[in-house]
Design goal:
This protein is mostly helical. 85% of the residues lie in helices and 0% in strands. It is globular and about 50 Å long.
Length: 386
Amino acid sequence: MPLYRGWKVALAGAGINFLVGINYTWSIFATSLVKQEGWTYYQAALPYSLFLFCYAFFMVFTGWAQDYLGPRPVISIGSIFAGSAFISCAYLLNYPFKAAVSLGLLLGIGLACCFASTTPAAMKWFSSEKKGMITGLVVTSTGLAAMFMSPLIKVLLQRGTAEALIISGLALTCGIFLLAQFIENPPYRIKDLREWAAAKKPSSALGDSRLYCFWLMFFLTTGTGVTFAAHLDNIMRIQTAYDKGYIAVAIFAFCNAAGRIMGGLLSDRVGRSTAMTIVFSNIALMLVIVMAVRSPIFLMVAVAALALSYGSLFSIFPSAVVSIFGEANFGRNYGLVFTALGAAGLFPYLGGLLFELQGHYLYTYSLLLGTTLIATLLSIKLRNSY
């Protein structure tokens, strides 16, 4: 029975994360905002950047909330915020800055409630040998979502940007709220209570420099993935003259999803810090290739490989946090690391600004390559430190 209940929680969490994955389709929404509503490219990137900042910032508080209140009420509240984000944005399309703030703030809170609660709840039902695999399973659907949503959203946007936003908001609210009712924590055992008490001592993760090293590496590497998520549709059009960028978005989403399983399995096999070094190195290599190619096929292949590594980050980092610091206060500890994703929201905005100034993405690629190489060196240093 506990095993059945654990898989029920894991599958419901995967379903919630599938809906949460709508954020990976933003480049399609952004293109529509430019073409139909007259926004500039950096204005269209701003809602996504603000969303990432709010999403990561509120992960600290929602992680704490799910630690103390349980996952179900936190996710249920999140469903309302997530749906309201798209619906409110639909009525503010004539005011780009107000629309960006509304969508970024509300969607950030809503998705933080969901993501901070689904993975910890599922992981608690399984043994330590399976935590990487379960983490990969639960977060995989987040990346997989855009593969299915991209063509659907493309069709909805043909009817109008406002209509597509409203329909998306309603679907998020209803779907997430229903699935939240299946999420629960397992009953506490004596071992769990001992770990929880130990985590309250002064020697907890907040005093460990490795937690802050995780933050810095997460910031330096996720910037690449979120920049491609925000600009991929336009990158395909500008760099290869390919006008069906939603196909590239779907490929990016599929590989992002596959990478989350791959990252969990890889980190279970070779260790967390070694897996980081491998994944970071691949992101850097793919950025070099992306700089050089002009063929849509070769660009899609490079983007697919990059997405595999980007997706892996969302399995490797939570697995590393729980392996080093334990399950107690996992929501708080990983929530702190996850704020780096919010800081990385700066990169999509910079990408849009640099594109407006230069008319290409070469400087953006160079910036991302530099940050990824720094993260790779940090991962090697971390691996040698313990």
